[in-house]
Design a protein that fits this description.
The chain is an alpha+beta fold. It is built from 8 helices and 7 strands; from the N terminus they run αββββααβααααββα. The radius of gyration is 17 Å and the shape is globular. It binds zinc ion (ZN). Zinc ion (ZN) is lined by residues 22, 114, 116, 155, 186-187.
C-alpha cells in the first residue's frame, strides 16, 4: 500500500491540494507494532515507497492499579538505505497519537492522510464550521463524518496533534467519532482503512466546500 500512498500524494499534488513538500500520510496494519510514515522535506509528486520511514510503537504499562494505563513511545526503525538519511514527517505527533491504538480499525488497516485542499481551507477561512455545513449535504454526511474545526494552531506542533485528536474524539482504545477534521488556516486530516478511502473523505468535503462557497450563502 506504500505505492498507493505515493499515487494518492501525486494526485493531491496535481489537484493543488499540496505544494511539493507538503502533505503527509501514515499507515499501520493491525497485527504489527510499527507503522510507516512519509519522510519530511521530500517532493511528494516523486515520492517512492523506499523513502518511507518505519516507526516502532513501544507500549509499556505505566500504572497497574485498577485501570491499567500505558506509556507510548516511538523510535525510528531501520528500513531502506534511502530512508536511513531521511527524517519522519514533522507531523508525527498527529499520526502517532492516532496509530498507537487503532480503535474501530483494530482488525484492519489505519491510514491517515493530511493535505491542504483549497476549498476546505477557504471555507474555514471564511468562518464556516465544516461539521455544521456537512449536516446540509446528505451526499457528504452519508459517507463521511466531519468533525468540528480545529482553530489556529501552529503546524508541526503537539498542540495541533492534541486539538485534532480532541475534535476527532479519539479515546484510549483509539476509537474516533469522525472521519475527517479541518484545521483553520492549514488543512485537513482524514482517516480510513485504505489510502483511497481516506482520500475520498477529503474529496467529498472539498466538493461540498466548493459548492457552499459558490452559493455565497453561509
Ligand atoms: Zn500541513
Amino acid at each position: 500500500m506504500l505505492e498507493t500512498i505515493c499515487e494518492v500524494l501525486e494526485d493531491a499534488y496535481k489537484r493543488n491540494w499540496i505544494t511539493s513538500r507538503d502533505g503527509n500520510v501514515s499507515i499501520r496494519h493491525h497485527d504489527r507494532d510499527h507503522f510507516y510514515i512519509t519522510p519530511s522535506g521530500v517532493r511528494k509528486q516523486t515520492l517512492q515507497p523506499d523513502q518511507f520511514k518505519k516507526i516502532s510503537i513501544d507500549k509499556s504499562i505505566h500504572s497497574g492499579y485498577g485501570n491499567a494505563a500505558f506509556n507510548y513511545n516511538w523510535q525510528d526503525l531501520p528500513y531502506t538505505d534511502i530512508s536511513k538519511n531521511l527524517k519522519p514527517s514533522g507531523e508525527i505527533p498527529l499520526h502517532f497519537g492516532l496509530q498507537k491504538e487503532m480503535g474501530q480499525h483494530k482488525d484492519d488497516v489505519r491510514v491517515i492522510v493530511h493535505v491542504h485542499p483549497t476549498y476546505c481551507i477557504a471555507a474555514m477561512h471564511a468562518g464556516i464550521d465544516l461539521n455544521t455545513i456537512s449536516n446540509a449535504f446528505p451526499e457528504l454526511n452519508r459517507y463521511t463524518r466531519v468533525a468540528p474545526n480545529v482553530g489556529d494552531v501552529a503546524p508541526i506542533s503537539q498542540e495541533l496533534a492534541d486539538e485534532c485528536h480532541k475534535n476527532l474524539q479519539l479515546d484510549k482504545e483509539g476509537n474516533i467519532a469522525y472521519d475527517i477534521v479541518g484545521i483553520k488556516g492549514h488543512g485537513v486530516v482524514a482517516i480510513d482503512t485504505s489510502p483511497w478511502r481516506a482520500y475520498e473523505h477529503i474529496e467529498r468535503l472539498e466538493h461540498i466546500c466548493k459548492i457552499v462557497l459558490a452559493s455565497g450563502k453561509y
